[in-house]
Structures are given as structure tokens and as C-alpha cells.
Amino acid sequence: MSETGYETAFGLGEDGQAPANALSTLRRLWRSADDQHGKLFIVLFCVIAYTLLSVLGPLYSAHVVDLLWEGIKASLSRGQVFHVAWDYGGLEILLLFSLYGGAWIFYTLMSFLMASFAEQLSLRLRTQISEKLNRLPLSLYDRTKTGDILSRATNDLDKMSEALQTGLLKLFTAAGMITGSLIMMFQFHLGLTLIFLAFMALSLILTRIFSQKTLRCAAKRQQSVGVLTGLVEEAYTGRSVIKAFHREEESAAQLHQATQELAQASQKADFLINAINPAIRLVNRLGQVGIALLAGKLLIDGALTVGRFQAFFQYVYQAAEPLTEAAYMINSMQSALACVERTYRLLDEEEMSPEPAHPVVPSSSQGRIVFEKVAFGYAPERLLMKNISFTAEKGQKIAIVGSTGAGKTTLVNLLMRFYEIRKGRILLDGTDIRLMTRAQLRSHFGMVLQDTWLFQGTIAENIAYGRPNATREEIIAAARAARIDFFIRTLPKGYDTLLSDSEESISAGQRQLLTIARVFLYDPAVLILDEATSSVDTRTEMEISAAMKALMENRTSFVIAHRLSTIVDADLILLMEKGDIIEQGTHQQLLSKNGAYASLYYSQFS
Amino acid sequence: MKTILYFLSPYKKLCAFTLLAMILDVAGALLIPRLTADMINIGVTSGNMDYIFQKGLLMILISLAAGGSAILGSYFCARLSANMGKDMRNALYDKSLSFSARDFEQFTTGSMITRTLSDVNVVQQAVVWCIQMVLPVPVMCVLGIIMAFSTDAGMGLLLLGVTALVLALAALVTKKAAFIFQRLQWFLDQMNTVVRESLTGVRVIRAFNKEPFQEQRMRKTFQDYARSAISVNRLFAGLDCFAFLAINFSVVGIIWLGGNRVGQGHMQIGDITAVTEYAILILFYILMAQMVILLLPRAHVCLGRIQAVLHQEPEILDPSQALREPFSQDPREPVAVFEEVSLRFPQADGDTLSHLSFACRRGETTAIIGGTGSGKSTIGKLLLRFLDPTQGRILFRGVPLTQLTQKQLRRRIAYVPQKAWLFSGTIADNLRHGKPRASREEMERALEVSQSHFVNSLPQGLQSPVSQGGANFSGGQKQRLSIARALMKKADLYIFDDSFSALDFKTDAALRKALAKELPFAAVLIIAQRISTIQNASCIIVLDQGRIAGIGTHSQLMESCEIYRDILRSQTKGGENRHVGNRI
Lengths: 606, 584
What we know:
- The complex is a heterodimer.
- Chain A is α/β, with parallel strands linked by helices.
- Chain A contains 19 helices and twelve strands.
- The longest helix of chain A is centred in the middle third of the chain and has 54 residues.
- Chain B folds into two domains: 310 residues, ABC transporter type 1, transmembrane domain (ABC transporter transmembrane region fold); 246 residues, P-loop containing nucleotide triphosphate hydrolases (Rossmann fold).
- A six-stranded mixed beta sheet of chain B has the order 6-9-10-3-11-12, with helices on both faces. Chain B has a four-stranded antiparallel beta sheet with strand order 2-1-4-5, covered by helices on one side. Chain B has a two-stranded antiparallel sheet with strand order 7-8.
- Chains A and B meet through α1, α3, α4, α6 and α7 of A and α2, α3, α5, α7 and α8 of B.
């Protein structure tokens, strides 16, 4: 998230990506907006009415101005003062006003209708994503970066709605305006129109050249941003080292160098981005001079009236603006489609296997677990675990040890059916876990992980996460059992303290204790402790383990620990290596076996 | 605002040029319709083509001048903002170097990174927008109205009225939008938080069968955000439509009133075009500025965050007059002495460290042991003067730390931080942090003592690349390299802050043996969690919640200190004490 965050903050996120299949994405988007089709049809009607009126406006204003000018000339020749009156000019001006007024009404109508279109569409897609997230297998989460999925739901759809919000309406009206104005211009005068078109072509070519150059400069700037970002992160994170080795001056010099390079790169890129508008305006103005010159001659020759002269200029403005913006609009529409395409790709991800049609409900929760010749792999042809078999009797403490990547956490994930096994079966109290619903299965398990995940809510809500209807007394009792009650009471708001992501007043150890309290209250039959005490020191760990022991009483528990000292009293130790169990037994059995476990155990003391 | 002016002040000339270019551009934009009107006037009255050509030539000249100055203005503006951004970043970083650990931690690393990178960028962007879109508005309004008045007083009044009306409305919308925008930003953050939470916590959520609950939470933030975004869109649509209406009213008003004024001979028929164009230009500029002004509150927040860093007074300052060679030359003088040292963080209920007294002597190893949160790492920070004690004092070779410059002090201390952190570059680059012009032999020696034999097996040896933070090395390798870096430095005191935790027991032992041989005359301070790491120290200090719970040798503490025995028991469960007892 952090890198992409900077990118967008630096305004360099405009990836000119094109959608892979624009047409089918567009069709799908149309279907996604099917609740708003009526609205879109009204908008389309408004667009047509609006462009018609807008194109007619200058034509009629030409008539009005000519009429006034005739009147003025006539009055002047008679030596009288001309006044706009109801029967002369007034009615026409009022008509002109209602023409513009009509255009305004349609414009207002469609602007307000469209104000909610894009956001409602994203809301719909977002809601679909939130439902989808619960149906995706855990393996997808493991192989996808959090930031990627996050931006499908937030950034991508934001970009889409931003583009659709202003872009769609602009695109519609631009198309109408350009056609209408050009038709009128050709009607007025061919030569004038050709001059206009020639200069438009020139400014389009200019835009192209500019944007290519801009892209290159922006890439260079992005590079400097990358260098500086790396340097700044490194310097701030390692600042105690910099200070301890009194390297402040060298470090500052290095950073100044990087900011200098960025300044140079962004000066260039910014200049190109800023200069394109004035450059195009200049070309357009020169075009207007050409038109004015020719029109002036036509005026003298009497081939063009004053009103039509003015009206022609109005058409020039009406057509020039959308034409120069066309490239930009099409670009932004394209990248919006590319964004939606990514969102659809997420929505199309393969889901978890369906729940059994007639789930078996295990009679009573005992907590006896059997792994029978279990094999597992993310892909069927590449198995990570080939043959896992063991039995955990009710109430036993099972310790899983092994080096990182040996498959300890995977084993637990299979047990909770986060992953589907490829071969063999896993039994909970004699029932194949695939015959139960996932919810039924998981209601027997309580988990404490190394990663201390808490959600944004109060401490009490977090402890009661598994049992939302727990009373305050029960919550406090759980906190006391996890030895966190005292700490919570020292907080100004106690149990009602709001936890947020950036909460720094709560240490990692304390967060861990909260997750332990959460399991205490949940009161499951089987306990899973995955490196649960790795963020607390040994002495606190000892205190907690006393409470843990009470919790483990009459419960089957699976313990993954990095300190062997905490698991010597386990009923069964599973030593894992490369996905398989290479030794199993009690501490004494394994030591007397003098195998891999024994050498691992003694290695911490030799 | 003051901060912006401060950062602009080195570029006064550039600012003046930027403004001048902008004014020329606006003036040009207004002169073109004026000339077009003249052409019409000539065309319908005198019918003199030569005049028309003259006007046309003038128009081309003005277009070129205005366009040229606009492009030049973009260049000045880009240059100004690039330089300002550079200066701000440099100032932020330089300031951060003067901070104590506490000064810095109050901002947090992540936030300091954001402030230095993206906050500065937002401010830069805002300055550019202001120069290009907001500042031209008053110029445009004033010049446009003057031009209208110079054409005809009636027209001028009409334009003045419309402009005032639109400005008033724009101000009103801005005020309202600022509030809605703030709320929108909040909902956006909320949406990010909740979605992120659902992704990172997927295991826990599923384990507790809380999928529906989490879905509900997401849906609510999505709805809140959509509702808020739609209200912003409606506000904009309203403003947009109002401006549309205002333009229509003005055009019709100008034709009606203009028709009369032309009829009375106060102005000419072509002037109607000119005044219409002024009106459209003024409204267009106001609308553009409006969009930008709505984005300014965010820039203001960013600027505030930058200011907070720049205005932060560093807590620890060097003495104004430091002695050149203040240290005691007596070798029996302890290298470091803590005298009744206490430390309490502001707003904290209790002391982080309380009444600590001990000394580190040459040729001796002092060890500090305690649980997480016992305050043991803080002792290292105090010695390096990353923090100052609230009570008591610390002496270094007989001199109070406050009488030394930070450089004088730190030159004599070698430090291995708790979190091994290497800098991108090569291994040799990192080792040279300890001694800038170190020879190859010296580096190899330091690697040898620190048990970093793995460097020899790397294809590029000392020249092997190190990525940011040392991410391309394992935790244990990083620790050994940062120990080597510290050993490069010839110091009176070596501090090892929990520096052996990622090492296996064998390497830990070998390393400590080599260290003892390498540093016979220096004082060594080891901060540790594992008793096996420190039990041979000359003096072990047991810290518990910031207090000294016991002080002495291993065997003394085994006798007298309950907490020490507790710690030992927790690390050797299962009655395996004998393994620990027979250490080196």
C-alpha cells in the first residue's frame, strides 16, 4: 500500500493502461448498471435535447443580432435613437433566452441525474466484492498482496466513478456538440470551417507530440521519486544508526542530492504538463485570427452578416473545446474500463467448494482429531504434504515443531479447512470435516496467532468478537484470565477504549493478550496457538502459560512454538520437515530415540 | 501561509516573473475579443480591409505574446514548485536529524516518511494550482470589468453585477463543500481501514465465523462513502448549472442592453461580442478556481503537518561551549556512570526508568536483563544521548553528558541496535560507517570477530550488494554484520542492544568468546533477554518495570534475586539447567 500510496499522492498513478477487452467489459458494465438503465435513457434524451438547443442557440442569436443591427442602422439613418422594444427585438431576445433556458433545464436535469449514477454503480460493485471476499479460498489471500485486493475495492472503483462521473456526460455532449456545430459551420461558410479544421488538426498533432514527451519525462520523474522514497525510508528507519555513527552530514548530503535530482526531473515533467494547455490555446487563437481575417473580409463584401459573424465564433468555441479534450477523455475512459476489468477479474475468481447439501452435525463436541494419510498441495501435481497421519485424543496437547517453511501452519490451516486436502481425510470426533459446513467445523476451534489481528472497535467488542452477546462481567473475566484486565483498567476509557490500526499506546504484547482473552471468552473445544507467545517475553509468557494451562484443561490443543522449552510437556510432539512429519511422540520418547528432535533440542544448549 | 512565504523567499525574482507572465496571459486573453470586436466594427462601417489586416496582425502579435508568456509562466511555475519542494524536503530531513529519539517518535517513522514525501508534494501541487488558477481570478475580474467599463459604463455595471453574484455564490459553495469534503475524506479512510482489516484478518474472521458481520461492516462504509460522494457531486452539479444560467442571463442581458446602448450611439455593434466574451472568460476563471480552492483544505492539513516538524524544538541541544578534550585521562575512571537516573515520558503515569545507579568499567562486561517493557533498551538510548533523563545524571569518562557535544560523545561509543539495520550499498560501505577509511584487513578482521564467515562464501565478498535495511540477509546475518560495523569503530564503550537474539546458541557463544579477546580494554554493555548470553558478565543488572531488581554476578543473583531465578526458569523449563550451567 505504501508504495502505491506515494504513487497516487505524487499524481503519477495515471497508468495509461488500456482494457484487454473493452467491448465485453463495457457490455458487462452495462449489465451491472441494469438498475439504472431508466435513468440513463432519460439522460440520453436530455443530452440530445440539450445539444439540439445549444446548437440552435447561436443560429437564433445571429438572427436576433442581425435584426437589432438592421433596426439600429435604420434608426441611425433616420437620425433617431434606437431602443429595444417588445415588438422590435424584445420578443426575439426573450425567445433566445428561452432557447438557452431550455438547454439549461436539460443540462441541469442530466447533471443531477448523473451525480448519483457512477457512485451507485461503484456501490453495487463494492457490495459484490464484499460478498465475494467471503467466498474466496484462503489460498487466494495467500498468493495476492493485500494492497492489490484493497485497491480493487477502493482505488480502482474510485477511478472508474471519477471517470464516469464527469467523463460520460462530457463524452455524450461532446459528440453531439462537435457534430452539430460542424454541420452549422459548414452551412455558414465552407472556407471559414476549413480554416478552423486545419488549426484543430494542428493542435491535435501538437497534443500528441506533447503527451509522448510528457510520458517520458514522467517516467524519469517516477524514477527519481523511487530513489528518494527508498532513501528517505532507509534514513528514517535507520536514524539511530546514523546518529550513533555520527553520519548526519553524509546522510543529509546524500538526501539533498536525491531531492535535487527529483527537483530537476519534476521541473521538466511539470513544465510539459502545464505548458500543453497554453500551447494549444495559442494554436487555437492563431486559428481564430485567421477566421477573423477572412470573416472580416466577408463582412466588408457583405457576404456575412454581423450576427452570423458572431454566431460562427460561438460555434468555434463550442466545437474546439471538446475536440481538444477528446483525446484526454478517451484516455480516461479507457483507464476506467481497465480498472473495472480488474475488479471483474476479482469477482470472477474461483470460489471455495460449496458446502455439503446435507451437513452432518457432530453429536457433541469432544475434540478428538484424526489425520488419515492426508496429502495437500496448492496444485494437485505439486504436493507439499504427502502423507500425514496422527491422532490427537480428546484433551491432549499436541506440539508442532520444525523450521520455518516446514508446513506447521499449513497443517493447522488444513484442520480448520482453510485449505482443501487433496487425499486422505481429517476426522473431528469421527466425522469427516468435509461433511460439515465450514461454520459448524470452525465453531469448535479457537485460534491465537502470531499476527495479532484486532478490528476497529472497542476493547470490549474485540474481546467479545466470538460471542457478541457476552455480558460485561464475562468479558472482564476473560480479560482477567488473559492477565490484561489490569492494563485495560489503566486506560482512560477502560474497556470502551477504541482500537484503531495506528494505535500506538498498545504494545504488541498487549494486543496479543487481547486476542488470548478473545479465545477465553469463545470457549472452544479445540485450541490452536500459532506462535502465540512470540511477542511477549519469557517471564510474561510463563505467567500466561499458567492461564493457558487452565484453558487447555479438557480441550485438545495444537501448539506451534519457536521456543522448545514451552512444549516439552506436550502429549504428542510432531516434528515436521518439508511438509511431512518425520518424528512423533512425547518429549522423552523422542529424546531417547536420539534422532532429529533430540539433536534439535540439544542444539539450543551446545 | 508564513511557511509558504518563507520557502518562496529565496526565489523572489522567479515569483515576480511568474506573476508577470500570468498577468500578460490574462491581458492577452481579454485583448483578443477586443480586437475581434474592432474588426467587426470596421467591417460593418468603413469597409477598409487594410485596417482589418492591421488589427489581424496585432492580434497575431498579442496571441504570440500572451501564449509565449503563458508558456514561460508554466516554466517559471514548474521551476518554482520544484525548488520549493526540494527546499522543504531538505529542511524536513535536516531538522529530523536534530531530533532526540523522543522528538522523532512523537511523529513516528511512517508519518515522517509521509510528511517528507507526499505531504510536500501536496503542498507543492497546491502552490502550482494557486499560481495558475486562483491568482489569475482577481486579475481577470478587475481587468475584464475595466475593459467593459472602457467600452461602455452600462456594460461595465452589468458585468460587475454578474461577477459579484457568482463570486458570492462560489464562496458559499466553497464553505459548504469544505465540510462535505472533509467528511468524504474520512469515509474514504474508513472504507480503506475496514477493507484492509477484512483482508488481513481473514483467518481470524473465518475462524470465528464472523464473515456476515465483517460483510455488514464493509457494506456500511461503502454506503456512507457513496452517499457522501453523491452529495459532493450534487453540490458541484448545482454550481455548474448555476454558472451555466448566469452565462445565459449575461448573454441575453448584454444583447438587450447592448442593443440599446448601440442604438444610443454609446458603443458599437461589435462591442457586444467583446463584452459577451469578457463575461464568459470571467465566469470560466471563477469556476476553475472554485475546483482548486476545494482541494486547498487538504493541502492546508499537509502544510500543518510539515510545519509541526519544522517548528518542533529539538529537546537535546549541544552545549554552547564545549571543551575540546574534556575527558578524564585516568584509566581507572569508569567509562560510563549512571547516578540516580530516572526517566519518565510526558503524560506517562509512572517512570520508565527509576533511580538507576551503576557503572561500566574498562575491561568489564556489564549486562542488563529484563522482560519486554522493562526499559532495558532505553538505557542504551540514554547513554547515546538519544534521550535525556528526567532526573539524575550520566557521566562519560567523568564528564556529564550535557557538557559534551553529541558528536564528541558518540565518537567514543560503538552501538549495535536492537533492530539490525543496514544501508543499501555494499557490505564494505556499511562497515566503513564505523571507520570511513578502513583497510581491507581491518574489515576482514571485524567480520571474523563477529562470526560473519558467510561473507567469504558470497561471490562478491566484501563488495556484495546490500539492499535497503539489509533485506537480502537473514536476521542472524544482519545482526552479525551490524556487530562487525560497530567493531570497526575504536571506542571506549561498546553497546550491544539485544544483538544476539537472532543468533543460534553456538554462534552466540563463539561470538562472545571472540569479543572478549578483541576488546580487552573497552567497557562493554550487553542488553539481553537470554540469560545464557550474559551469565558470565562481571556485573548483571536485573531490570523489572524500570527498577533495578538485582545487581551482581550470576551466582550472586541466583542466591538473592527471585526475578532472576524466574527468568532463568522460564528459559530452561524441563529441568535442563545443567546445560546452561556449564557455559564458557
